[in-house]
């Protein structure tokens, strides 16, 4: 016997479930009154949720309807109706038969730069329409961008959008949005703005063309630290699109690419015309932005530690030549030492000691390094042994990459090698500060090593067949060299 189809508000017949989240379900439905297919979003919070929390969620759904209803743009999903029935709220909207950008990247891998420039142009158009109407989206990310097979794009989920005449909806004064896509100015306590939406668009573009989120880490705290201090590593983006990404990810919102500037550069990529140069502005580097450090007080300890170190990234090699080794006390108990050991040559196969600078890459102590993010590897760091592949961090493993930085991220990639001494000094400071964040959370004694690229590795950055790296790396393990069974970062 066929099950009777559910009908909402005596109008919308539910046909199939399209997606489900913690706070609701999206259905494919048929509008019996107008005879068209729609997407019906049903707010369905979990049992036991507080009445105040439910009210906030309902208001967000209504806000999405009001906000989208004010916009008339082909890249904005149209909202048709809002209904309430049996204590539940439903939002009827345009049905988009398409995958979201996050799913496309997950299924098919990194996107071509020209293709992504076309997608970004459409999202940019939707954002411009919203900004002209006084609306800030506040949650631009791949999962909120639908891409149809014909290439048409729809920006969805204006549920936490902020209008000039609409009060903010937050929890106890918290910031609403996805941490990996929040701009440093928002994390510093500034209001959401068109510039913060453009930052999120830059993160989205980087995610799509590189196949990995540039700032996503294993915990919210480490993600926030990455946003504040770790510029994205761009390996697959075309030079022209990399310029757009870097322009959108300029920390100071006053120096960030504007929508018209980004549009001009993206159009040139799509049309294959001469690249539009990145606008030159004074003091536009990540390290120049004092608002990040000043506003980070409201964030977690990881952001405080990273922001305090951010000043060091305003690098001047002549200023660091006389810097001494770290004297930070360590609870790891390793030889009760607060000093970094000298980088003396070790025999092949010898374990690399803690608080030691070693080289990686072509001709280095670790001749090959192929993991990134906060990935884990099976074997311990030993002199002359490569690290070629990762293993799951929730299973047995020897080491974990707990942080990485690109110290000369805002300089041309053909910049000369800054030298072992300067990179070592930078890395000692950087890894020590990152270890301070993790150390209080771990009961067992830990060791950590800083890895810097060799000059050959550095110079091979733009090698198409085997690109080198211009990063410094911080690697953790258990002091007794016994296997780890879980992530030390999450």
UniProtKB/TrEMBL annotation:
Pfam families: Pkinase. It comes from the Bacteria. The keyword Transferase applies. Residues 12-267 form the Protein kinase domain. Residues 319-344 are annotated as: Disordered. The keyword Membrane applies. Gene3D superfamilies: Phosphorylase Kinase, domain 1, Transferase(Phosphotransferase) domain 1. Its EC number is 2.7.11.1. SMART domains: S_TKc. CDD domains: STKc_PknB_like (cd14014). It is an enzyme of class 2 (transferase). Keywords: ATP-binding, Kinase, Membrane, Nucleotide-binding, Serine/threonine-protein kinase, Transferase, Transmembrane, Transmembrane helix. ATP binds at residue 41. The chain crosses the membrane at residues 291-312. Signal peptide: none annotated. GO terms for molecular function: ATP binding; protein serine/threonine kinase activity. This is non-specific serine/threonine protein kinase.
């Amino acid at each position: 016997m066929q099950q009777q189809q559910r009908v909402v508000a005596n109008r919308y017949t539910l046909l199939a479930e399209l997606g489900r989240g913690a706070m609701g379900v999206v259905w494919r439905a048929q509008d019996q009154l107008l005879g068209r297919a729609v997407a019906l979003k049903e707010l369905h919070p979990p049992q036991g949720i507080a009445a105040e929390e439910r009210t906030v969620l309902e208001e967000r759904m209504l806000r999405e309807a009001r906000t989208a209803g004010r916009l008339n743009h082909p890249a904005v999903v149209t909202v048709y109706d809002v209904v309430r029935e049996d204590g539940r709220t439903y939002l009827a909207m345009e049905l988009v038969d398409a995958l979201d950008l996050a799913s496309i990247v997950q299924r098919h891998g990194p996107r071509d730069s020209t293709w992504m420039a076309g997608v970004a142009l459409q999202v940019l158009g939707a954002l411009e329409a919203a900004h002209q109407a006084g609306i800030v989206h506040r949650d631009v990310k791949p999962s909120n961008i639908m891409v149809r097979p014909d290439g048409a794009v729809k920006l969805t989920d204006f549920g936490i959008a902020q209008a000039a005449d609409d009060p903010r909806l937050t929890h106890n004064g918290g910031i609403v949005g996805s941490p990996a896509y929040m701009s440093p100015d928002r994390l510093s306590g500034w209001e959401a703005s068109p510039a913060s939406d453009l930052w999120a668009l830059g993160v989205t573009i980087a995610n799509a063309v590189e196949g990995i989120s540039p700032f996503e880490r294993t915990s919210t705290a480490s993600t926030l630290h990455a946003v504040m201090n770790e510029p994205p590593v761009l390996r697959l983006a075309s030079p022209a699109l990399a310029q757009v990404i870097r322009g959108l990810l300029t920390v100071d919102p006053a120096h960030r690419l504007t929508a018209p500037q980004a549009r001009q550069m993206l159009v040139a990529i799509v049309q294959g015309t001469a690249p539009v140069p990145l606008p030159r502005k004074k003091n536009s580097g990540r390290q120049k932005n004092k608002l990040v450090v000043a506003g980070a007080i409201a964030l977690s300890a990881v952001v405080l530690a990273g922001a305090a170190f951010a000043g060091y990234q305003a690098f001047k090699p002549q200023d660091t030549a006389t810097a001494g080794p770290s004297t930070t006390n360590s609870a790891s108990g390793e030889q009760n030492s607060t000093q970094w050991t000298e980088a003396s040559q070790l025999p092949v196969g010898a374990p690399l000691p803690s608080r030691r600078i070693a080289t990686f890459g072509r001709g280095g102590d670790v001749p090959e390094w192929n993991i990134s993010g906060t990935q884990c590897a099976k074997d311990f760091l030993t002199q002359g042994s490569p690290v070629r592949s990762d293993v799951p961090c929730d299973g047995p493993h020897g080491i974990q990459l707990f942080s990485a930085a690109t110290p000369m991220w805002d300089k041309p990639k053909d910049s000369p090698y800054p030298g072992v001494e300067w990179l070592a000094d930078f890395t000692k400071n950087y890894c020590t500060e990152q270890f301070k964040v993790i150390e209080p959370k771990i009961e067992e004694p830990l060791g950590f090593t800083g890895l810097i690229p060799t000059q050959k590795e550095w110079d091979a950055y733009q090698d198409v067949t085997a690109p080198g790296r211009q990063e410094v790396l911080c690697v953790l393990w258990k002091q007794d060299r016994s296997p780890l069974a879980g992530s030390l970062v999450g």
